[in-house]
Amino acid sequence: MIEGFTALYIFMLAGFTGYEIISRVPVILHTPLMSGSNFVHGIVLVGAMVAMGHAVTGVEKFVGFIGVMLAAGNAVGGYVVTERMLEMFKSSKGAAK
Amino acid sequence: MNLLIQLSYFAAAVLFIVGLKRMSSPVTARGGIIWAGAGMVVATLITLFWPDMHNYGWMLLALVIGGGLAWYTGKKVAMTDMPQMIAIYNGMGGGAAAAIAAVELLRGDFHATSFQVLAVIGALIGSVAFSGSMVAFAKLQGLMKRSLVFPNQQLINLAIFGGALLLGLVLMGADQPAGFAIFLFFLLALVFGVLMTLPIGGADMPVVISLYNALTGLAVAFEGFVLGNAAMIIAGTVVGSAGTLLTQLMAKAMNRSLTNVLFSGFGSGAGAAAEAGPEGSMKEVDATDAAVMMAYAEKVIIVPGYGMAVAQAQHKIWEFAQLLESRGVSVKFAIHPVAGRMPGHMNVLLAEAGVPYDKIYDLEEINNEFSQADVALVIGANDVVNPVARSNPESPIYGMPILDADRAKNVIVVKRGKGKGFSGVENALFFLDNTRMLYGDGQEVAGKLIAEAKQL
Question: How far is CA B316 from CA A43, B328, B382, B447, in A?
Fold first, then answer.
C-alpha cells in the first residue's frame, strides 16, 4: 500500500514529469501526443481488472464488467489511432527511425 | 508473485514516461508509442496473476469485446475523424475510472477514510469526463448540430454539480454507503458532464477534449491511490499534468481562455452582430491562369485548411506541389496552430498524403516569408487567414494569431462557395485586390491544376 506522504510525493513528482515532457513539444505533434497520453491513461485497465476480480455481488460484477470493457477500449483504441498517426511522420531526408 | 507484479508495474511506469518523452519529437515519435504499448502489455498480463482474483471468464470476455471493438474502429476511422475518436476512447477511460470507484464504493471496504474521499473525487471527475467526451464525440461527428443554450443554464449546471458534490460528501462519510445514494451520485455527475459540454461550440471542442483527457488522467490517478496501484498513480498523474499544459497551449493557439471556452457559447450573440461587411468585391480566376501563375513563380506558400481534408485533396495538392518543385519553384506548407480540428491535426493529414514534415512550417516560422512569396495558395482555410483578426477589434476573432497570407504578392483562394468560415465571420482576405477566387471542390480543382501544370 502506498500511503500518506509517499503518495503525495509520487503525485508531485509525476506531475512535474508530465509538465516537463510536454513543455517543449512542436505544434505538429500536439494531436498525436494528446492521443498518446490518452493511450497512457488506458492503464486504468489494470485497476478495472483488479476491481472486477474482487467483485462479489451481481451489481459489482456487472459494473466491473463495464469498467473492464471501457478500459480495454481506451487502451486498445488509444494505441491503434496513435500508432496510425505516428506511422505517417516521415522526413524528406530518408525515413525516420 | 507479489514482487513480480510490483516490478512489472514499475517497468510499465518507466516505459510510459520514456514513451511519452519520445513521442515529443517527430524523429523518435514512432518508437515512443511502441515503448508505451509494451508497458501496457506487461502491466495487463501480470495483472491476471494478481492474488485472490475471481470472475476470470467474464473479465476475458469484457477484454475481448472492449478491445476488439476499439481495435476495429481504430483501424477503420478516417484521419479526418481522428479528434472525435480520441474523444470517445478518452471517455471510455474516464468511465472505467468511475466504474472502479463504483465497485469499491459498493464493496465499502476502504482501508482509510482518505481512500474513500479520493475514490469519490475520482468518480466525479471520471463520470464528467465520460459523458462530456461522448457529447464531444457526437458534436464533432455531426450527430448533434447545434449548441444547446437555454435560460439560466449556468445556474442549473451549478445546481446539478452542487447536488453531485453534496451526495459525494455523504458517500465520503458513510461507513457502508447506500446503493441508492451511489446510483444517484453517478447519475448527477454524468448529467453534469453532458450539460457542461452541450453549450460549447464545435470550434472549441478540441480544447474541451484535451481538458477531458487531462481529467481522465487525474481520475485514473485517484483510483490508483484507492487501489494502491503505483502504475496507475504515475501514468494518471503524468497524463493529468501533461494534458493540462496541452489544453492551455491549445487554448492559447486559438486565442481563447479556458474559462471563455467553458462558460460562453461561441458566436452566440455578442460580437457577431457588430460586424460590418468588408468593402470591394471577390474576383474569380480559372484553373489555367492559377496554374500558370504558380508554375512561373519563384516561391509558393500553400495554406491548407480543414476544407482541403474534407475534400480529400491533400494527395493531389502534394502531387501539384511536387510538380511545381520539379520546375524549380520553392514550395512550403504553412500550418496554422488550429488548422484542421485540433492543433497538429493538419500535420497528420499532410503526413498521410506523404508530405515530409520538414516542408511544413509553423505560424511563427513562416509568417515573415509571406511578403516574399509570389503566390499564397489558400485551400480550404478561412478564419485562420482572415486579416480582420489583425485589424478589426469589433470582430469576434480579433486578436487570434493568423497566417499573413494577405501579404503575399498574389493570393489564390480555393473554395467551394461564397460561404463564411467556421466562426461565421466574413473574410476580408477574399475581397482584397491581390486575391483571386478559384471556386470548386478542392480535389477537382487540384486535379485541374495538376493537368494544367503538366501541359506547361
Answer: 40, 19, 20, 6
Cell of A63: 459494473
Alpha carbon B178 to its chain centroid, in Å, reads 39
User: ipTM of this predicted complex?
Assistant: 0.91
Single pTM value for the model:
0.79
Closest C-alpha to B351, from B20, B38, B29: B29
Find, among B135, B143, B142, B33, the residue nearest to B88 by Cα: B135
Antiparallel, parallel or unpaired: β B360-362 and B375-379:
unpaired
Give the tens place of pLDDT for each residue, B50-109. 888 889 999 999 999 999 999 999 999 988 888 889 999 999 999 999 999 999 999 887
Q: What is the DSSP letter of B284?
A: B
Domain boundaries, given as residue ranges, for chain A: 27-90
Distance CA(A40)–CA(B240), nearest Å, equals: 11
Q: Which of residues 8-37 of B touch A (CB under 8 A)?
A: 9, 12, 16-17, 19-21, 23-34, 36-37
Is A8 in CB contact (< 8 Å) with chain B? Answer: no
Considering only the C-alpha atoms of chain B, give the largest distance between any 2 of them, rounded to a whole number of Å: 82
- What is the length of chain A? 97
Mutate to test the interface with A, among B14, B34, B55, B134 (most CBs of A within 10 A): B55
B107, exposed or middle or buried, with CB in 10 Å at 0-12, 13-18, 19+?
middle
Q: How far is B326 from chain A (nearest CA, A)?
A: 15
Q: CA neighbours within 13 Å on the CB side: how many for B417?
A: 2
